[in-house]
Write a structure and sequence with these properties.
The chain has 13 helices and no strands. It is mainly alpha-helical.
Length: 357
């Protein structure tokens, strides 16, 4: 009898071991395919992120179109409207910047060839004593020529990089069409595949939506403030078209990785070449201290309050997201940071406050 019990226990143990081995095997195969799917989808992550952001931002106007148009046709009309609203102003800003950059390069090269920098030094008595020292130590004409060549190469590299951004933009709009048209099926699939309950999955979706809204409206508020500050200083220093350049600085500050510095730094260099040293110093300090502080301090403050995050985690989320994910990290970083406490709260509720984790 005792031997039979031992044999039965041994058989049960072997069965449990075999079951555990098969469970581990299935888990390993599943994880392998999940990792493979993530690797395949990784190159399309920026396009998917921008498509998701645009879908969240324009979903309410799209609802109005769906009331009077078929789903596919409504999605196509929404894509056209979003393209005009988003891409149109961006193309105008890029055209203006490229045009002004080309004019600036031509101006720097002309100043170097005609020796205008010598006239600039002689026009200021306190710089006259440095003229001969500069000429002995540096070949300023060659330096200006090299700067012009550098700016030309930089513009060419920017245009080449823009080609990849154009492809990403087209792919984002392609994905956006299906997100708008088939969003109900997509949400049902997310709820079905989510390891969390339907209530928890709904909270995750709402948190992602609220985070995107917070980033969008916080970014627009900061862009408007930067444009006003930049345009005001351009007007105070009697630079050409302060309202236009303020508008461009505001629009450029919306673009991740770029910022209003791509406008006020060249303007500062232009003032230096013109011999307006005081104005150049004022503009440089205004841009580097006031405008930059708006971007680095006010943006995390506004976005952090909307996402129910402290300013420091919000600041780390934006900068860390940009460094890790690139331009799309301005959304992915805050989304990851704001979902972490929510998911941990889910686990805390499952374990219970008085039970060990």
């Amino acid at each position: 009898m005792h031997e039979e019990l031992e044999a039965s226990a041994l058989a049960d143990q072997e069965q449990k071991v075999s079951i555990d081995v098969f469970v581990l095997a299935r888990l390993a195969v599943t994880l392998a395919f999940i990792v493979g799917a993530l690797l395949v989808a990784a190159p399309f992550l920026p396009a998917l992120t921008w498509a998701l952001v645009l879908a969240v931002l324009f979903i309410r106007p799209h609802h109005l179109l769906e009331r009077i148009l078929p789903r596919s046709f409504a999605a196509g009309v929404s894509i056209l409207i979003i393209g005009l609203v988003v891409v149109g102003p961006l193309l105008l800003v890029i055209e203006r910047i490229v045009s002004e950059a080309a004019s600036g390069v031509a101006y720097v090269q002309q100043a170097a060839q005609e020796g205008d920098w010598r006239m600039m030094l002689k026009a200021h008595p306190w710089l006259a004593s440095l003229q001969h020292w500069f000429e002995r130590k540096f070949d300023l004409q060659s330096i200006f020529s090299q700067v012009g060549a550098f700016l030309t190469n930089l513009a060419a590299n920017f245009l080449r990089a823009s080609t990849g951004q154009v492809i990403t933009t087209l792919l984002a709009f392609y994905l956006l069409f299906f997100l708008l048209r088939d969003r109900a099926a997509a949400l049902q699939m997310v709820a079905r595949l989510s390891p969390f309950s339907n209530l928890e999955t709904g909270k995750i979706i709402v948190r992602v939506r609220d985070t995107v809204h917070a980033i969008i409206f916080g970014t627009l508020a900061v862009a408007a403030l930067q444009g006003l500050l930049g345009g005001f200083m351009f007007w105070a220093l009697d630079l050409n078209s302060p309202a236009l350049w303020g508008l461009i600085m505001g629009l450029v500050s919306i673009v991740p990785v770029l910022g209003s510095f791509v406008i006020w730094i060249p303007a500062t260099i232009y003032l230096l070449i013109e011999g307006r040293w005081a104005a150049a110093l004022i503009l440089g300090l205004w841009g580097g201290v006031v405008i930059a502080s708006v971007d680095n301090l006010v943006r995390p403050l506004l976005i952090g309050d909307s996402m129910r995050l402290h300013t420091v985690p919000a600041f780390i989320a934006m900068l860390g997201g940009l460094q890790f994910f690139g331009a799309s990290g301005i959304f992915l970083g805050p989304i990851v940071m704001t979902l972490c406490p929510l998911l941990l709260d889910f686990w805390r509720r499952r374990v219970g406050p008085d039970q060990p984790a």
